[in-house]
Amino acid sequence: MKADPFQRVLFTVYIVVFFLYLLGPLAVMGVSAFNTPQYPQVWPIEGVTLDWFAMLFADQDMMTGLRMSIWIGLLVVAISVPIGLAGAIVMTQIQARVRSAYYLVVVSPVLTPGIIIGISTVVFWRQFTGQTGTRFLYDGVVLTVLGQASFISAYCMLIILARLQRFDRAQEEAALDLGATYPQVFRHILLPFLKPALASAAVLAFLSSFENYNTTTFSILSDKTLTTVLAGRVRQGSTPAISALAVIIVAATILGAIAYEVYKRRADAAAARRQRAALAEEEAELSGTPAPAMG
Amino acid sequence: MAAAVELEGVNITFGEFVAVKDANLTIEPGEFFSFLGPSGCGKTTLLRTISGFIEPTRGRVKIAGQDMKGIGPNKRPTALIFQNLALFPMMTVAENIGYGLRVRGVARHERDEKVKNLLIQVALAEHGHKKVSELSGGQKQRVAIARALAVEPSVLLLDEPLSALDLKLRQHMRTELRAIQKRVGITFIYITHDQGEALTMSDRIAVMNAGVIEQVGDGRAVYAEPRTPFVASFVGENNRIRGRITAAEEGLATLDTPLGTLRGRNPVGLAVGEEALLFVRPEALTLHDNGSTIGFEGETLDVAYEGSVTHVTLRARTGQKMTASIGASTGVALPVAGERLNVGFRPEDGLLLAHPGRH
Amino acid sequence: MSGSLAFVLGLPLAVALAFFALAAHERRTGTATGPGFFQRNGLGVGLYLIIAVGFWAFFIILLPQLAMVDMSFRPKLPPAQMGGPKDVYTLENYRYFLFGSTTSTDAWNWLHIKAFLLTIGVSIAITVLNFAICYPLAFHMAQSATAARLRILLLLLILPYWVNEILRAFAFRVLLSSGGIINQMLMGLGLTSEPVDFLGADIGLYMGLSYAYLLMMIFPLYNAIESLDKNQVEAARDLGAPWWHIHAFIVMPHAKPGIASGCTLVFMLTAGALAAPLVLGGPRTLWFTPIVYDRFYQAFNWPQGAAYAFILLVTCIVFVLLVLKAFRLSLGEITR
User: Which H/E stretch holds residue B80?
Assistant: First the structure.
């Protein structure tokens, strides 16, 4: 910004305050995870301890909830990614005159409050399983997976659709022309092309499921996930063990982000290097001089 | 032996739009055949019809004597090289080349053997393990060719595959394509809007305009003996003069033009009184000192020296612009801008064709 | 009730048939060309597409919503009487929302109505507040930050994104509690002698709500402003346009879809928030979603809960429609 010094100072103050607001509460919680007092406290630091982490891991309900959350997350990935994929493909094939209606239906869960999705899922499946004699399906895990799948599938669809719209139809035609059948085109060409989007969708689906509370709290019935256990604990009172959990989640996120960044940079650099080598080789070929040895 | 490809009264329409109109054509086995025309002339539509992506609205496509109606692109003995090549980015070079064999269920060792041979043929023996994105433009071209040849098509279809390359590489690839075709001996059908490509590589060329095949013939025929005004002006540079036939003799005719009375060959047998177009190639125009009585008068507007040839832009009395090309080896003195000259040509270098829409 | 089962199974079938009728019609009239659905995808993939999308659209999205709406118009009955003569459509649950229990002496059900209006009002206020907080940063990131700086900013923003809603609310409780660091500072500075009861006064709740969905505003804004050509802003500046003019007439009109998308998301999430009110709400806190929750799991009156949920849903739909109308946008433009 080319602005006068006063504006620049004002803007810097704004940025600092913004990130203080954004990260401050997390930092406060983080510090309290290592401070000894029973009640989460930042100042004064009375002693550094890892007890709260130990307490967290000793909490049977939390650990059961964690296992349940992971299990539900995996099931949601297994359901939402295929549904999102199908939803995106249908979006590109459906008749133009019904496309907007279809879009409205499948995107609506994104704009629907989570508790409403939870409520409607429970209401419907209670009736449906009752009437069809499939009461065994009226189960916290099944309902939670179905409820979360409604909007998480929509997230997946939007991610996959964005990549699908960049798909070069000539790829499909080239495969057909070489003798592939339509199912082969789907398996060999379309799916590998969509793989990065499918991977992003899977990661997003798992994380969204893992941290979901609003839908889950209705649909989980008598079971417990990490978030519902957590909500119960938080309502009972504050303990630094909860801060410890937050620290673990934030640390895992940072490590994941860094690992991904490093991997991506390395892959990009390697690809660029090989591309340059190929160009140099061709240049040499055309001008008739022997290509320099390339590593 | 049956013709490689036959088109019988092929019409292709999209709604109201007529993309291809009444195409009749026979392409012989082993021929390098080009469709030449401006973009939107229907040549790509025709190619996609032969490869099976489009069903003709009317008419028949036969390949090796067999009617292709209802036979999908994956069942035809053709292979198509796409304009953007459409190589599979998630596969290696070898996997790309072997893809057609893979979907045909060819056993792995047999496939590997064949891919290896093809890699050697297109001088990519060391590159089989690479990803497509790691190749240069010319290497990608060769992968596309090898991938198409792997399935041993009886007809190879090429949709302007060289258009994305830079000039030097494009010229190099022309020679290479022609050499490959000679070696494998199958029919090549090549689509291009670049007359240089069509003329240098093809055995025969079909010139297309607005969905209609205007003329079919070898390179010399479409350049020297164009049958329609479109072919005359699209293939190579041409000067065009409108006029009316005043006399027609054996092979030649005289016509009255705003530039004066001119003479030219009359291959289509235009009769006296008909509106005609006279075409004269820039290299057929001769420039003389003002004062001689040949041809018509023109003023030199611009002299563009290009080394082996010099292009002279002239303005005739009527304001019409023309181009004359003077070869460096002819030893003719170059005019300067502003100079007034007399422009002439031999009657046998002038070509008379009917004025379209004035029959 | 067996009638509703026929509906549940019949609706997807009817829609599927309608689709194939439409496809056949388009094929006959020539508006559709190219291979048909099963030819295009193959039988296996074709069936997968139909089953996956059909199950999603009907059994996960539409039918549950319809079941909820249907239930909201039914009386609360013991299971034995369901489907019996007393199971008739009624407006009782909606009447209760407005006027309360029939035995109550008040004219209106003020407790619930107030909570509802407060929820909507506060949600709108928080939406506007978050827009004001996020817009300058989004603009800076999209238009003038250097690449290196942008990476850092994005990382700092994404980090709290994956922290659970409950934990975010919990962080505020730690921050604002009577022994929390804010109160310690205020007292240390001598601004107050007693700890301020932020949580009891609902300040904690409102801050927590604003905080929780801050990022739902900043990312849509950033994406929308990012696509604006930097030269346009430069040109306007060169022409001497004042800064507010540039934002009001160049940047914001361009970023309309992002603004609408951010506002819709923040409003929906705030109005539907359940974690923050549970964690940060005081004993007297009024918020609509806990009331809905209590209809189900405290009062065990599911039809009434369904009615309350439907009221919330309609409110959100109306809000989305109003935003779309105000910004003259289509749904497709804001859900990206």
Answer: strand B78-81
CA distance C308 to C288: 9
Domain-located, residue A211 = yes
Q: Strand B155-159: give its sheet, edge to edge.
A: B78-81, B155-159, B187-192, B32-36, B204-209, B212-217
pLDDT digit string, tens, across residues B181-235 = 999 999 999 999 999 899 999 999 999 999 999 999 999 999 999 999 999 999 9
Residue B334: which CATH number?
2.40.50.140
CATH code, domain carrying A173: 1.10.3720.10
pLDDT digits (tens, 9 = 90+) for B31-55: 999 999 998 899 999 999 999 999 8
Global confidence as pTM: 0.85
Instruction: Write out the residue range of the structural domain in which residue B105 sits.
Output: 5-226
Q: Are residues B148 and B282 in the same domain?
A: no
Q: Are residues B220 and B241 in the same domain?
A: no
Domain boundary among B184, B200, B226: B226
For A:29-68, CB contacts with B below 8 A are none
Find the closest chain B residue to A183 by CA distance. B103
Q: If contacts are CB pairs under 8 Å, which of residues 116-175 in chain A contact chain C?
A: 116-117, 119-121, 123-125, 127-128, 131-132, 146-147, 149-150, 153, 158, 162
Domain range for A151 is: 60-238
Residue B359 has pLDDT above 60, yes or no: no
* Residue A44 lies inside a defined structural domain of this protein: no
C110-334 has CATH 3.40.30.10 classification: no
Q: Is residue B119 part of a domain?
A: yes
Q: Assess A170–B contact: CB distance below 8 Å, yes or no.
A: yes
pLDDT value, residue A214: 92
CATH 1.10.3720.10 domain position(s) in chain C: 110-334
The structure tokens 């990022």 sit at C215
Residue of A4, A18, A45, A120 to mutate, interface with C, max C Cβ within 10 Å? A120
Residue A174 to residue B78, Cβ atoms within 8 A: no
Our CA-based measurement puts residue B197 at a distance from the nearest CA of chain A, in whole angstroms, of: 19
Q: What are residue A212's phi and psi, to 5 degrees?
A: -70, 140
Select from C32, C181, C305 the Cβ nearest to the Cβ of A119: C305
Those residues with Cβ within 8 angstroms of residue A188's Cβ, 6 or more apart along the chain or in another chain: A175, A180, B88, B99, B103
Write out the H or E segment, with its range, that includes residue A217: helix A214-219
Residue B206 sits in the same domain as residue B259: no
> Number of structural domains, chain B?
2
Q: Where is the domain boundary, B201, B226, B251?
A: B226
Do B213 and B273 share a structural domain? Answer: no
Helix (H, G, I), strand (E, B) or coil at B217: strand
Instruction: Rounding to the nearest 10 degrees, give the CA dihedral for residues C278, C283, C289, C292.
Output: 120
ipTM above 0.90, yes or no: no
Chain-chain contact of A113 with C272 (C-beta, under 8 angstroms): yes
Q: Which phi and psi (to 5°) does residue C122 adopt?
A: -65, -40
Residue A199 lies in a domain: yes
Which neighbouring-strand residues pair with B280?
B239, B350
Alpha helices of B137-279 — where are they, by DSSP H? 137-150, 167-184, 195-201, 219-224, 229-234
Element (H, E) at C83: none
Name the residue with tokens 């098509």: B153
Torsion of CA C318, C322, C323, C328, to 10 degrees: 140
Residue with tokens 């240069």: B136
- Closest chain C residue to A102, measured at CA: C57
- Give residues with Cβ within 8 angstroms of B234, minimum separation 6: B36, B37, B38, B195, B207, B209
| Alpha-carbon span C51 to C45, nearest angstrom | 10
Provide the number of structural domains found in chain A. Answer: 1
In single-letter form, the type of residue at position C145 comes to A
